[in-house]
Specification:
This protein has a domain at 50-164: Gamma-B Crystallin, domain 1 (Sandwich). By secondary structure, it is mainly β. The strands form ten sheets. Strands 11-12-13-16-15-14 form a six-stranded antiparallel β-barrel. The chain has a six-stranded antiparallel beta barrel with strand order 18-19-20-23-22-21.
């Protein structure tokens, strides 16, 4: 944050602290945060002490980015302006300027600009017409009344520094272990805020930074920012070299808190490690290090990042009060909005919250009568799943998991780093609408969207789509468009191009339908035609544009192919080609390259096997997965092709959700146990698919 007296990082380190309770302290329910109504601390560029400068010089300094600032002409300067109406000696006013910067001014009857080691672009209004004036470094240029051909009165409106080789130049790289710190430039310097890297593609900051008028409304629309926004990650001093710069392409505001996630168009390199989110609440008296790019008592702009230690006051469900450990030493100021509040436990730094508001006592530009120095932070420790779901919008492949639990269906996403979101109720939280209890599902990733088929407890079949942006369409009744089936028990699906191929198991048969790109469905067609009786389960895969269907009948697996011209081949006995097993209780298939991967659970789930069908029709032997999955009893098995590799997931009788990946070199990742946050009961039937975010 912008603090009165700060320590340059990395000299400042957080102190090892004791974790607080996982929920807000008991007093949070009855005690309001004292600083929750303090002003937002967005840097709006308003020039500090402009009234005093106007009285002393006759020039109005309106707003800037802090990198061009008023100074005495008797000392070093980079810009000198002459104007007829100035009250200063020789009608001059001077400014210091860093290597870049802008300043909006109103200097009537200006007629000359001189530069020292700076290239300047100036906007001037001459007889009501605004013109751009370029003044190369170490030169002077007359305009307005100084024009020998057409002298007219002029008003200087704006100055921008476009390049420099002087003492405020690039500097040296700053060594910094906390490379997750970031600064936002909004609207070409008209606003700035602090931020923190929480994912290679995402920084978290204050939503108020992007509001039209934060003091009146903190509403921010999701999508691209209204004004061009630039973020720099991993610099302690903005004028130093190094760091990672990127444009912001997408905003995801939190609906209830002063929090926004902002997506980078270029991900931060691996050296810039995102900060981890805390999972326990801040507690009264706890010390947090607050780190930001805001103003200080006597500076703003590219002065660099600062850190001071604050003490937590009242904590509520949404935020917490902050007070400087030594109030005379630190104040949260403009530009600190979005600054991270950090604690370190066992040598690891974690993000507890983000600065939102402060009274700004003693800050540069604050009223002299303001003595309060308290601040308010937005909690993020209890928003882990919300942050994870925003991270899941990052470009790249994602694993979508649809999990039956209790009486509903829940959706979770595997993020790029292998972590998972929690699970949201598709009928309630995801707002796809209620179809009653759900016992079975299928999922298909198509062009960034996830198509979901759900079998209701009443035997209905319904379809919905989760869009790439995370929103859901309402469930639609498949029976109403493809024909009604009796005794529906399960469903499986796969896509070929834009066509969604669905195979339903009903009345002991496997029946096939297609939903085309326009949303039109073909009537269900029996594909077993008595040749594979008493079907209890089915699985689908696509290889080289052909639909492969595997059914379970009498505890054994049978396989067929629908060719590209719509013809179906005969059924083959998988056991005869890949080896016999005990009775199959769960099956999943997926295509990867030219291979069809089959994963089954047998003997009431106590054994799990894997086999591969090659494109020439040969099979590898069914091989037990005990060395991969361990000794488990599987309730449901699922597979998905993610970036050409086969992911395998299993739900178990003891309530676990296991996940692993088989790579193209035939090696397997260690199996991990995935957290099932959000599930009301033990996980049941599982469906997996891969989606691509652009």
């Amino acid at each position: 944050m912008a603090l009165l007296i700060r320590r340059w990082l990395p000299a400042a380190t957080a102190t090892a602290l004791v974790f607080g309770a996982a929920t807000p302290v008991a007093s949070a329910a009855v005690e309001a945060a004292a600083n929750a109504d303090a002003p937002f601390v967005v840097e709006d560029g308003a020039y500090p002490d402009s009234a005093e400068i106007l009285a002393a010089t006759g020039a109005t300094l309106i707003a800037g980015d802090g990198d061009i600032y008023y100074t005495s002409c008797s000392g070093p300067y980079q810009i000198m302006v002459w104007a007829r109406n100035l009250k200063t000696s020789e009608s001059r006013i001077c400014f210091k300027a860093r290597n870049t910067g802008y300043l909006s001014v109103n200097i009537p009857r200006a007629y000359r600009i001189e530069t020292v080691d700076r290239d300047i672009n100036a906007s001037v209004s001459i007889a009501g017409t605004t013109k751009e004036l370029a003044v190369p470094k170490d030169t002077a240029k007359g305009f307005g009344e100084a024009d020998p051909v057409d002298p007219k009165q002029a008003v200087l409106l704006e100055m921008r520094v476009t390049g420099s080789s002087g003492p405020f130049g690039a500097g040296q790289p700053v060594l910094d272990k906390q490379l997750f710190g970031a600064k936002l430039d909004i609207g070409g310097g008209t606003r700035s805020c602090s931020a923190v890297l929480v994912d290679p593609y995402w920084v978290a900051s204050a939503k108020s930074c992007f509001a039209d008028k934060p003091a009146e409304s903190n509403t921010v629309a999701a999508g691209p920012p209204k004004e061009k926004t630039r973020v720099v990650v991993g610099k302690s001093i903005m004028i130093s070299s190094g760091g990672h710069a990127s444009d912001i392409t997408q905003l995801v505001p939190h609906p209830d808190r002063d929090l926004v996630m902002a997506r980078l168009d270029k991900p931060a390199p691996a050296a810039f490690t995102p900060v981890a989110l805390a999972t326990t609440a801040p507690t009264a008296g706890q010390a947090l290090d607050v780190v930001g790019f805001g103003r200080t008592v006597d500076g703003w702009g590219s002065i660099g990042r600062h850190s001071s230690t604050f003490s937590v006051g009242t904590t509520t469900a949404d935020g917490f009060d902050l007070a400087a450990k030594t109030p005379a030493d630190a104040t949260v100021c403009k530009g600190d909005a979005g600054a991270p509040a950090l604690r370190t436990v066992n040598g690891k730094t974690e993000l507890v919250g983000l600065v939102s508001r402060a009274f700004q006592g003693n800050c540069l530009g604050a009223p002299a009568t303001e003595t309060r120095t308290g601040a308010y932070g937005t909690r993020v420790d209890n928003l882990h799943d919300w942050v994870q779901r925003v991270r899941a919008l990052s470009p790249g492949w994602k694993t979508q998991a649809l999990m039956q639990s209790g009486s509903s269906l829940y959706q979770g996403v595997r993020v790029n780093d292998g972590s998972w979101t929690g699970f949201n109720d598709v009928q309630a939280t995801a707002a796809a609408g209620s179809i009653g209890g759900i016992r079975n599902s299928a999922a298909v990733g198509m062009n960034g969207d996830t198509h979901v088929l759900a079998v209701s407890n009443s035997g209905g079949l319904f379809h919905t789509i989760r869009k790439e942006d995370g929103t859901w369409a309402k469930f639609g009744d498949v029976f109403g468009v493809a024909g009604t089936l009796g005794n529906l028990t399960s469903v499986t699906a796969m896509n070929i191009g834009w066509d969604l191929h669905v195979v339903a198991v009903a009345d002991g048969k496997a029946l096939h339908t297609v939903r085309d790109k326009d949303g039109q469905w073909t009537p269900f067609r029996d594909i077993t035609t008595g040749k594979v009786p008493n079907v209890t389960a089915a699985a689908t895969a696509v290889v080289r544009g052909e639909l492969q269907v595997t059914t379970v009948s009498g505890g054994k697996a049978y396989h067929t192919i629908r060719q590209g011209n719509g013809n179906w081949l005969g059924w083959g006995d998988v056991a005869g080609a890949a080896g016999s097993t005990g009775p199959i209780t769960s099956i999943s298939t997926v295509g990867a390259g030219d291979e069809t991967h089959v994963v089954i659970a047998t003997d009431n789930g106590t054994r799990q096997y894997h086999a591969v069908r090659n494109f020439n029709g040969s099979w590898t032997p069914l091989t037990q997965l005990k060395d991969i999955l361990g000794t488990v009893t599987a309730k449901s098995v699922a597979t998905a092709n993610i970036a050409g590799e086969v992911q395998v997931a299993v739900t178990t009788a003891d309530g676990k959700f296991l996940h692993t990946t088989r790579h193209t070199d035939r090696t397997w990742d260690p199996t991990t146990t995935v957290p099932t946050q959000g599930l009301p009961n033990a996980p049941g039937h599982l469906a997996l698919t891969g989606t691509w975010n652009g």
